[in-house]
Amino acid sequence: MMEIQKLKALVYEEYIDSVVRSLGHAGVVQFIDLREKPEDWNTVFLPYKQSTDNINNCSELLTKIETAFGTLHIRPDDFPSPKIPITKEMTQKVLEKVEQKLDDLPIEEAKIYALASRIDQIIGELGIKPEQFEKETSLTQPEEIELEHIEFELIELDKTIETTGLSNHHVLVERITSKHIDNFDEIGRKFAELSKFVIDSERYFGKRLLTLKKTVESIIGTIETGINFEEIRQDLLTLWVIIKEEKRISKEKEKFVRSSKTVFFEAWVPETLEKEALSRIKSASDGNCMIADEVPNLDENVPIMEKECPSYLQAFGKLECAYGRPSSGDIDPLKIFAITFPILFGIMFADVGQGAIFIIAGIIFTWLRRKGKVKEGGDIIRYLLISGEMLIYIGFSAIFFGFIFGEFFGPSGLIHPITLAKIGPFQIGGFEPTQEPMKMLKFAILVGTIHISIGLVLRFLNELRHKHYKLAPIPVCWIWLIFGSLFMWAYWGGISNISLWFSEGNLMLIGLIILPLFLIFVFAALAEGFMAGVGFTVEVFAETLSHSMSYSRLMALGLIHSAMNYLFLVLGGVEHGVFPLQSIPLIAVGTILVLIIEGLVVFVHTLRLHWVEWFSTFHSGEGIPFKPFEST
Amino acid sequence: MDPSIISLIGLAISIGIPILSAAISIIICGTALAGVGTEKPELLSRLIITVVLGEALAIYGLLIAFMLLGKLPDITTMETANKALIAGVVISVATASASAGISYSGSSLIAATAERPETFSSNVIGVVLSEALAIYGLLISFMIIGQI
Q: Which of B53, B59, B139 lies closest to A552 in CB terms?
């Protein structure tokens, strides 16, 4: 069963605003943009082109309300968003009512009350006690001039308070404690300074604010309008939310299509929320609708419900998402990716000592992240903290390959290479890459072949899940081709012996390379047509060759890593695994250099091998997350 | 000409041209990246691949130069010296070609991703395939050195 269902609905035009509003309040569906596939409906429906009046009116009203906010010193973000009732009226009617209500609001008259309210708000934020500052005041200038002065002064005061961070004492306190965490004397001194600053500032601001307050109160005393500013503010906030909602609804409706009197839309809805969506459509349209739900077609790009990534795979999840999410119905390769990534990294960065440094750094970063330090520091620090666990995995992998290639801070001779296995001409471990680069090259190509084959197995499973039975044999033949080519290369030799492939080895060539290629052509042609089959077969042949060769970068970067470390070992005078004392600073500098520069290059190449060579075999990355339409 | 001079020329070419190629791609992609970074910093972590792949070209040159350096005492005849020179030329031409590819497709990738981030996964192919050109040169160069 699919997690997400497809909903189709036909609603009378007069109810469509109400339906979208109701669905938007609940946030249960994601509307499908029908304009993207006009061939599905263009014989029956027309695009739902609304007059631009609604959107223009919304923008105009929003500007009006925001101007009123400015005039009345209201910061909408400081107040909780008011809950607005669900109305069944059309957007146009709602906008008319809002405009009427907005015109009725006594904005100009409320200005003086707004000043009083803002002054009170600041006094509250700063914790100023009025009884400390008794000061009589009287009007010295005419009311209007006095008001202008106060307004100007209030804006200035606001700015000063914001820039000093005075209204948030805890920010200042945190700044001090985080800087001088271990130095209690320093903390004490800084706190004393802070207290003096706060007291002085409050004394100054307090005096000014209370003076302003009294002036404003005396002006209010001279007028009797009976205005309730709290109500006006609440009304404005409500109108603001309503208009924003109507604007969103108008924009969302552009995805729909229409007949003369009805509007048709399609939407994705999670199975669990389907009942709610259906009942909302029915009640919002008073039953004037036709609704159908269906299981989406297997080939449709259905949004996927995002599952929370476990923290130990978080870094890999981010790398996978940076390429693209798996399409609906595809296998999520995250867990396999989390295994193959450290392995490929470890081959290129094989070193016991540097692997151990990675593990230590990984443990520290993970600990800091779990302490909640991710938000502090810049981008680079954040990335490092997120990749804490990943560093631990790649550290273990680097140590493992360090043992099998005999590397401890480079080919120092302290560790001897350990042979894990020999498969024909391929040797896993037991040699130093710098001494026997050809063995390393063969090992790299073997790893590449296995890696690509894992991708092809996943492709096979994906084809089965999508019920593409004609395409399912292609990855199987591809695995046959790729291992066949590897066997030919190992048995007869590479480019220099290519003539043998076509003379003595021609039968093998037919069985291991030509036959699987022909079968790939047959299956592709059966599924997608003759020309597509030819194109696809050529593509498979080229990809097999270029992608396998691309894995030789495992050898190239592995050798470079070893060679760079070797340089510092020679400079430091390290011989036969004996590290003289004077060599240690030099090796430390070299290690830092290698960890930073080489680490970054190897990381990007590992990522590239996954993104390009591996993902291209099975992972389209075209998945879209389920983002329900929310109007408020 | 003396074999040792020829082999040294090969070594100089094998490190010099790849470094120049890497510099060109970093200059072009790096400036484009800086431009995008001011507008959409959240894309930087993805797009940094263009600069790092450009930098890798210098590493391939470095690898061949290291290997030639290790072979210098064995280069005594004109034949081996010529092989060293050709190995240097092969990696230089390969990295220079890769650099041209990375520079053009990298800067376009950066601009396109800034406009439509969802096109990244298909557009990145141009950059990585350009970089693969250097790997082919590296392999051949590596095999030539193996025969010295």
A: B139
For A152-165, write each residue's pLDDT tens digit: 776 776 777 666 66
Q: Which range has the worst mean pLDDT, A194-198, A316-320, A495-499, A620-624?
A: A194-198
Cβ separation of A608 and B128 shorter than 8 Å?
yes
CATH number for the domain whose boundaries are A4-48+256-294 = 3.30.70.120
Residues 6+ apart with CB under 8 A from A309: A317, A334
Which among B121, B132, B136 is the nearest to A323, CB-wise? B121
State yes or no: ipTM above 0.85. Answer: no
Question: Which residue out of A552, A568, A618 would a mutagenesis test of the B interface target, given it has the greatest number of B Cβ atoms within 10 Å?
Answer: A552
Quick one: which of A181, A167, A175, A205 has its CA closest to A193? A175
Contact B49/A607, CB-based, under 8 Å?
yes
Residues of B in contact with A612 (CB under 8 A): 124-125, 128
Interface residues of chain A, partner chain B, Cβ below 8 Å:
322-324, 379, 383, 437-438, 441, 546, 549-550, 552-553, 556-557, 559-560, 563, 600-601, 604-605, 607-608, 611-612, 621
Residue A302: both structure tokens together: 């259905």
Measured CA to CA, the distance from residue A385 to residue A396 in angstroms comes to: 18
pTM given for the model: 0.76
**Virtual torsion, Cα A485, A489, A492, A493, nearest 10 deg:** 160
Structure tokens at A380: 């680079």
- Short-list A512, A541, A540, A528, CA closest to A617: A540
Cα separation, A327 vs A347, whole angstroms:
31
Residue B24 phi/psi, 5-degree rounding, is -60, -45
pLDDT per residue as tens digits for the range A558-615: 988 888 888 888 888 888 778 888 888 888 988 998 888 888 889 988 998 998 889 9
Range of the domain at B89: 3-146
Count: domains in chain B? 1
**CATH code of residue B44:** 1.20.120.610
Domain boundaries, chain A: 4-48+256-294, 54-108+231-245, 111-226, 311-618
Confidence of residue A449 (pLDDT cuts 50, 70, 90): very high
Find all residues with CB under 8 Å of A229, minimum gap 6, and list them: A72, A110, A113, A114, A116, A117
Cα A618 to Cα A341: distance, rounded to the nearest angstrom: 16
Residue pLDDT, tens place only, A254-264: 888 888 888 99
Q: List, for residues A356-408, the tens digit of each pLDDT value.
A: 999 999 999 999 888 877 666 666 777 888 889 999 999 999 999 999 999 99
3-state per-residue secondary structure call for A18-87:
HHHHHHHHHCCCEECCHHHCHHHCCCCCEECCCCCHHHHHHHHHHHHHHHHHHHCCCCHHHCCCCCCCCC
Residue numbers of B between 59 and 88 with CB closer than 8 Å to A: 59-60, 62-63, 66-67
For residue A237, the surrounding DSSP H or E stretch is: helix A229-252
Q: Pick A604's closest partner by Cβ from B53, B67, B138.
A: B53
pLDDT at residue A138 above 60?
Answer: no
Residue A352's H or E segment, with its range, is helix A352-370
Are the Cβ atoms of B52 and A601 closer than 8 angstroms?
yes
Rounded to whole angstroms, how far apart are CA atoms A58 and A53?
A: 8
Q: Return d(Cα A207, Cα A219) in angstroms, integer.
A: 18
**What dihedral do alpha carbons B88, B128, A484, A555 form, nearest 10°?**
50
Q: What is the pLDDT of residue A1?
A: 44
Nearest to A25, CA basis, from A235, A301, A241: A241
Q: Give how far A550 is from chain B: nearest CA, Å.
A: 6
